[in-house]
Amino acid sequence: MISHNRHQRLMRQLGELYRNATCVLVPGGFGDRGVEGMILATKYARENRVPYLGICLGMQISVIEIARNVLGLERTNSTEFNDQNPNPVVIFMPEGSKTQMGSTMRLGSRKTLFQTPDCITVKLSARTLPGTTQSLWMNGIGTDMR
């Protein structure tokens, strides 16, 4: 995590860097190198209404950023980077391998239950899952409920 003062300084620097940007692209990647900077770039895009495209890790970064800065879940992270964090919002799937990454990951093979905004589970989860609301809801959950 980044200290408050350093965070403010980095956000000012991002503002200068992205002043003329028409979009922010956060690509895929592996490991935790640069993740906090990606989270800051994602936050900048959200707060300044700059179009954002997160690919693979970039999408996971956007989930972490929303959980931290909109939902207020401190120390939120992915279990890929920190398997002991108290608020995991992205899990490292056991089907994957932490040593062989990339095209070897067949993430689409995981059984997932998908929900629609009008289904009863979404209405129930808004009452039971922290951070779920009518406008922000979990749209899929593993069959093991993770």
UniProtKB/TrEMBL annotation:
BP GO annotations: CTP biosynthetic process; pyrimidine nucleobase biosynthetic process
GO terms assigned for molecular function: ATP binding; CTP synthase activity; identical protein binding
Enzyme class: ligase
E.C. designation(s): 6.3.4.2
Catalytic activity field: UTP + L-glutamine + ATP + H2O = CTP + L-glutamate + ADP + phosphate + 2 H(+)
Listed Pfam families: GATase
Pathway assigned to this chain's UniProt record: Pyrimidine metabolism; CTP biosynthesis via de novo pathway; CTP from UDP: step 2/2
Domain of life where this protein originates: Eukaryota
This protein's UniProt keywords: ATP-binding, Glutamine amidotransferase, Ligase, Nucleotide-binding, Pyrimidine biosynthesis
Matching InterPro entries: Class_I_gatase-like (IPR029062), CTP_synthase (IPR004468), GATASE (IPR017926)
Domain Glutamine amidotransferase: 19-122
Keyword Transmembrane helix recorded: no
Family: Belongs to the CTP synthase family.
Annotated protein name in UniProt: CTP synthase (glutamine hydrolyzing)
Organism: Sesamum alatum
Taxonomic placement: Eukaryota, Viridiplantae, Streptophyta, Embryophyta, Tracheophyta
